Amino acid sequence: MSLRTFLQECRAKGEVLEVHEPLSPRYEIAAIVKALDGGPLLAFTNVEGHPGFTVISNLCNRDRLLRALGASDVADAYRRLLSAAERPSEPVVRSSGPEAEEVVMERPDLAKLPILTHYEGDAGPYITSAVISARSSDGRVENVSVHRLLVLGRDRMAIRLVPRHLYRLWQEAREEGRDLPVAISIGVHPAVILASTTPVPFGVSEFSVANTLLNGRLELVECENGARAPAHAEIIMEAVIKADEMAPEGPLVDITGTHDVVRQQPVVRVQRILMRERPYYHAILPAGVEHRLLMGFPREAEIWRAVSKVVPRVLAVNLTVGGCGWLHAVVAIEKNVDGDAKNAIMAAFAAHPSLKHVVVVDPDIDVYDPEQVEWAIATRFQADKDLVVVRNVRGSSLDPSADQATGLTTKLGLDATVPLGRDRKAFQRAGIPISERVEALLRRLRA
Ligand code: MN
Questions:
Q1: Is the same domain home to 261 and 402?
Q2: Residue 99 and residue 188: Cα distance in Å, rounded?
Q3: How many angstroms is it from 348 CA to the middle of ligand 1?
């Protein structure tokens, strides 16, 4: 399963907006992606200085993500993702080379790629859709994850490595006195990106999660340096994360829409770049809907599962756009007893440690509509009874308001559900009956 098959499906549905006007990769493309955030899939065919490349962005909004997973609704998508994480399956490894063998740059030059500079104040051009895979020296452990990469020179980049799985493989390589070989893939099927942002234990390859998600249709190739990449990727970079070379990384706007601080981070040296002819380069706008969704969706699934264990039914979970797709959740539940909503709050915090504020609502509230959520808080919430405050807990390193030295934060949960003892009618939004002729008239007035 490739990016190209997915693009074809989106084209057939009329969801692709092609932009043929000349645009610079410095700010101009990012400005358009931001202005049309969450809308059509954008394809920029005329990137100044980069003939032959098509930059695509906004590959995923919620609807397209569900389609990429072959899911009928959001609960089905959560179920598929969670079950893929529990039942990973080893992908087929192709003996012949990848599609990206069509153009091979033996002397890599990153300036040849249409890498975007996004925001004012960013340190430079950043690759934002890189699926990076590495293996332990005995080949037993593989990890696949998405990392931002700052271009430093012709074949050098700085990589942001939070102390998770790839970091651990890099540390192990350093202890063995060697650089860590990696494959950096750009332009893959959205299910591959989503699998690589799904939390699975160290030792489980996210490629195997992606393979289950794609019903066993992921194909891999082994690169010359031993790392593996999806055979259908548009661009594959063979590279190493240097054992002993560090560089300043940042500032860059991350998921919160604010600039992340500058840190000393490892340097990546690119050995070879393989590309398809007329490749698609996938650019994810930092803090855009696509970024928040690809990062947040697997966490929504975790919250959905955890809350489902403590209340009779979870109807929907939304890591909201305003909450950076990461820090705020709205959860709609059915409850048996009044304490259920508070248990739902605690389960949500446990399922997603970065979560900071959570609102629990009744099934009649649309979790995707911020106005309805605020209305539920306005009419169904009493702060002295319905508020949960948890002090001094670990939160997200991305939240600028958290204690920057300790990472500690305060979490807040709001039970905005109707108390069970009360007459529900008093809490219902009143409607107005709509006759057939009013409906017809309204259609005309709105057209
Ligand atoms: Mn991992």
A1: no
A2: 12
A3: 22
First to last CA, the chain: 40
Distance (angstroms) between ligand 1 centre and the Cα of 202 equals 5
Give the Å distance between the CA of 163 and the centre of ligand 1: 11
> Both 23 and 147 in a single domain?
yes
Q: What is the mean pLDDT of residues 326-344?
A: 96
Q: How far is the CA of 165 from the centre of ligand 1 (A)?
A: 5
Catalytic: 254? yes
Distance from the CA of 262 to the center of ligand 1, in angstroms? 25
Total number of domains in the chain:
2
310 CB neighbour count, 10 Å cutoff: 19
- Rounded mean pLDDT of 187-211? 97
Establish if 200 belongs to a structural domain: yes
Ligand 1 centroid to residue 211 C-alpha, Å? 15
Residue 267 lies in a domain: yes
Task: Please pick, among 37, 179, 254, 415, the residue that the annotation labels catalytic.
Answer: 254
Residues, Cβ < 5 Å to ion ligand 1: 143, 165
Give the per-residue pLDDT at 298. Answer: 95
C-alpha to C-alpha distance for 308 and 302, rounded to whole angstroms: 10
Q: What is the pLDDT of residues 94-140, one digit of tens each?
A: 999 999 999 999 999 999 999 999 999 999 999 999 999 999 999 99
* Domain carrying residue 105: 3-277
Task: Quick: pLDDT tens for 60-96.
Answer: 999 999 999 999 999 999 999 999 999 999 999 999 9
What pLDDT score was predicted for residue 187?
A: 98
We report the CATH number of the domain holding residue 422 as 3.40.1670.10
Which residues 6+ apart lie within 8 Å of 288 measured at CB?
A: 33, 34, 37, 38, 57, 58
- Whether pTM > 0.85 for this model: the answer is yes
Q: Is there a single domain that holds both residue 205 and residue 309?
A: no
- Please give the DSSP secondary-structure letter assigned to residue 122: -
Q: Which of 32, 29, 61 is nearest to 321 (CA)?
A: 61
